[in-house]
Queue: 2 jobs
Job 1
Amino acid sequence: MTDTMQSETDEVLREICVLLEAHNPNHIAITEETDLSADLNIDSVAAMDVIMNIEDKFEIDIPLNQVGELRSVRDLAEVVRAQLKDG
Amino acid sequence: MSNVTPTSNGSLPLRRGEFETIAEGLDYAARGETGCNFFSSRGGLEQALAYRDIRERAVDLARAFARAGIPRGERLAIIAETSPDFLIFFFACQYAGLVPVPLPLSVNLGGREAYVERLRNMMMRADARLAVAGPELVGYLEAAAKGLKVDFLGAPDEFYSLPSEGGELRPLTSDEPCYIQYSSGSTSLPRGVLVTQRAITENARAIGQHGLQLRPGDRSANWLPLYHDMGLVGFCLTPVMNQVTIDYLASTAFARRPLVWLKIMSEHGCSISFSPTFGYELCTRVSGRIDPSSLDLSRWRVAGIGGEMVRPSVLRDFAECFAASGFDETAFVPSYGLAESTLAVSFTPLGRGVKTDRISREAYARSAIAIPANGNGSAQSSRAFVKCGGALPGHRIEIRGEDNEALPDRRIGWVCISGPSLMRGYYDDPEATRSVFTPDGWLNTGDMGYLVDGELVITGRSKDLIICNGRNIWPQDLEWAVESRCGVSPGHVAAFSVDDDEGLERIVVVLETRSRDAETLRAFSREVASVITAMAGVGGELVLAPPRSLTFTSSGKLSRAAAKADYLAGRIEDISGDLPAPASVEPEVRLAAGAGS
């Protein structure tokens, strides 16, 4: 991985963590390993908020079939990177 | 991109549901200019199809089914996305003599496995020989169909490319089925409601002529999922049978951007739309994102509510918030219905708004009688329930007691219904069918309520069913998942819901454990939170209880009703309070409740 790619990757992760802070009432440290439903207070309504905010932030569309696969912050970051690359 | 279909037909007279089959209704609607419009998640028009276009494509596909030698009566399972393809396949089945089986869409984070399992059980129970899903979801369907006898499975385009020339049309006739709908039953034992052509045409006629009193100039908007009876019957089949134009927004899009629903209604002058209470709540919650006065909701004359308990304060908030948009709260129309009666049972009178009946809490709890509360009964001594209107013409509602005897007004009992819209039964499940019909042929809805001044009032459900954000959740599904994830043996987990004074439900899971190890208990809490989110899409509360906290019936079955009563009375000890707060995970083992963020 080149340095630029590495920093873009970090940027995506950082932005996602910022957006997720709204759903982190217990102020845990959000990392790639953080489980969206078990560690954060994200129910289905909040999930749609998160997805919408991420879509607007990165100007991408997260496909419906990917939502069921999203368990961790890492999964979320990977979907965003994949969509950014496709877009 | 083409323009939206018009609100009214030019020369074709409005015929309100006067048809014997769905195919006949679509044949008539296809002679006009009205139809269906599909909007993107940001509100842009993606596709507009007149009923004429939908019929043409459906007929073509039906011919292809016939040419492929698919026998009449076979079931076609289809993931019910809000898309032209779903409509085309549903109607093609009507012309080809096949029975469509709409399947749900998953939106829960991390819910893939639970979703595939659900699809699989539904396809198996319906003995589906054909299965269709859009390109994004066909992978789930393939996973779900593994090992089942599905002869044709694919994305819509694979079916459209089949040769159709010379294929014969063999429409479903008035005494045949129309579709199978999964709206009740647990994940492992889903119950498919078999709705006949007679039932759907009778219901669509009653809704069009009486419930909505449709007239030229009406236009509907819908974000409700088409695998749900309120979406499928209310906002797909009823509009076809009454030649009404529909503006569609996908449910997933609505969940992300609720206000797009209102923008579409404003822009296109829609007069009819329905939602469970939570849909109105979502709009109010995000109303800060727009200026309400930029919307025109003054033409919205039927703002229906159904699908879960009607919560008056939420509706009041919505009306206040969007008064600046010209929304009139007398447009609210509380209604009652269920898939087992196709959809609609009762509507409140149009133009009246939400009316409640305030009753004494004590008489309600002690003797199951709904006695009006004195003058200004306080919130402690009284509780208000929403009136849901009288039975549609040709339909009857009775409240019955434990021995199936009819009860007088203001006595609380089982809500039972009869009439032409009743389902024939659950598909291929005589035992489940017998369990819901009374000996004299009425349907026991499983809901509790009473009658007053000819109107139905729903007070709750006696079944263990949990409903959150309009979604049905079976407690045993949650319990099994918690048992397997936490490695506890069956009978040590109980799931139920408790509601607040307006019927908003919150999931509670009680887990019995001997463990006092903080790490183990914390792991339980994590697993349970994740199970509830994946299966129900909402948060919940976990109570970690010592052994023998749960009650069993004499036949050895877990009593959720007793667990709930014990929980509400504070008789279940919660050992999580003894845990030391961990440094990096949640400071409390109790999880945040409710759907709020």
Job 2
Amino acid sequence: MSAGPPNQRSDAPDEPGELLQLPMAPRATDIALGELQIVYAFIYARVGNRADAEDLTQQVALKAIPRLREGSPASAIRGYLFATARSVLGGFWSTRLGLSEAELHEDLALAVPQAPPSEERADTVQRILAELSDNYRRVLELRFLHGYSLKEVAAEMHSTVGAVKVMQLRALRAAAKVKVYP
Amino acid sequence: MNKPENRVDKIVSDLLHGRRLRLKGGDAEEKAAITAAARLIGARQGQQRMSPAFRKRLEQAIESAPNQSWLTRRAALVAGFGVAAGVVTGALVGRTLEPAAVAQRQLGGAPIDPIGGRWIDVAAMSDLVEGQGTRVTAGSVGAFLFRRGETVTGVSSICSHLPCELWWNGGQDLLDCPCHPASFTPEGKSTDPTYPLPALNTVRVRVTPAGRVEVLGTA
């Protein structure tokens, strides 16, 4: 079997006629592949690890792309991809932790990101930390932002590993209550 | 270790080391803390980009996904029969199957498509002996692979009648069931004309540009 010319359409009309050279519109699949970069960042920011982010992004792609219409604008494709991403993330958390849609509402009802969210994400962390008490903020800063081990955090805070573990849990519980999105 | 602070710290440590979320039943009690930890870790390095390797895998997964109207005819043909041999790169066009050759092998049962399936590297092309069955596992999916030239096909290693592991009878070029007198061809077809069993499920197989054989399995 020989490969046809690139982008050859299988449904091209058979009737002879004058052929017009038109610029090839990007396929919905190609647009989606570009948009999936933002979807991946969106998912990673919520699961915090590459392996799960890759699995979930692939699920989004395989679910959404077959349903995209050729000729759809990039904005519509992005919207559909993010709707699918929310559904996939909802399934991920509800399966792993029994989280309900209502609990996920804040996170999953976000508007579709319009730009790479790097600054927004860093800002998010600062907003969460700013709402916490000094000790809670310190333990999360050292552990999450500076990557300290429990021992190092304990030494820094003149405490014990056991106490730091408990403080970390309480700080995370408190962080979960911070309303990140208006 | 069952204390909530220990369980949550184990999850935090895994995430800090780049490992995936491995959650247990009792972790649901700390779901708020766990999602907060995941979000903090996800946000601490700013926007993450897909690695080139993952992007390539993603493109291949999209190209080889079955029954999709937007696929190229060539990719659909290959993927539909469980063999997607380098459909993305032009350099591998020579590895795709001729239509007639494919049709002759369309004997297996329905393909195994695990939910959330992943392409698992199982062997190098050079590991597979022409016409001989090679037992591989892709997570929870067990399969026998068969190489013919530059193409590879695969069938489930579980008998379609009793849930027993088949074995490769190289003397007769058949897959034999140890639990009862039943055999299958490498294409997964039952050999007994008087009591034909359902065909073995096929597995999805592809060959990467680097000559690695991957099976769609589970993580």
